[in-house]
Design goal:
Elements: E1 7-9, H1 17-22, E2 27-30, H2 48-57, E3 61-65, H3 70-80, E4 83-85, H4 94-103, E5 110-114, H5 117-127, E6 130-134, H6 143-152
Parallel strand pairs: 1-6, 2-3, 2-5, 3-4, 5-6
Length: about 160
């Protein structure tokens, strides 16, 4: 299957350390826009700072991998105390490789977390990584994104993964 999703959740805050442990995941390659916050928002979505803190307390390594430029990614990552890779060229593997090197974890213990089928999910599949799909926080308004979101519909998960707190 081209777009293989390991875990499907409503929001990133539904992802628990227990669920990650069940899947052998020790590191997360995090998308930024519409995963950790709304598009172009300088502040994390409700619950995200607490979720990041919980992941850190449970020994989960994290790195933001974004296709955005440094002026967007760096301040956001620094606010949350996270490593980051900007201009990651998802779905290609450049950003994932850089993040893996920084996290010093093996490929089989990493998962890509994101809201887009053609960047995050496809990128995970191309690199043979586990994938955590989260539904977008809000839908973008531009014509390009509206078209892209319509093209994703056939590949969206049909049911959510049961969460374990």
């Amino acid at each position: 299957m081209l777009f293989k999703i390991t875990i499907a959740l409503r929001t990133i805050c539904d992802l628990s350390p227990k669920l990650l442990e069940k899947h052998g995941i020790k590191g997360l390659l995090l998308d930024l826009d519409n995963t950790l916050t709304t598009h172009d928002n300088p502040r994390p979505a409700d619950g995200v700072p607490e979720w990041i803190r919980s992941m850190k307390e449970n020994g989960i390594k994290m790195c933001i991998v974004s296709n955005n430029h440094e002026p967007r990614v760096k301040p956001f990552a620094e606010m949350l105390g996270l490593e980051f890779v900007c201009e990651g060229k998802k779905p290609l593997s450049k950003g994932f490789r850089e993040a893996k090197e920084r996290m010093e974890l093996p490929w089989d213990s990493l998962a890509v977390v994101g809201d887009q089928i053609y960047t995050d999910v496809l990128g995970a599949w191309l690199k043979r990584l586990k994938c955590v799909y989260v539904f977008p926080i809000e839908h973008e308004k531009t014509r390009f994104f509206r078209f892209k979101r319509k093209m994703e519909i056939p590949f969206l998960p049909k049911k959510l993964t049961e969460t374990e707190k």
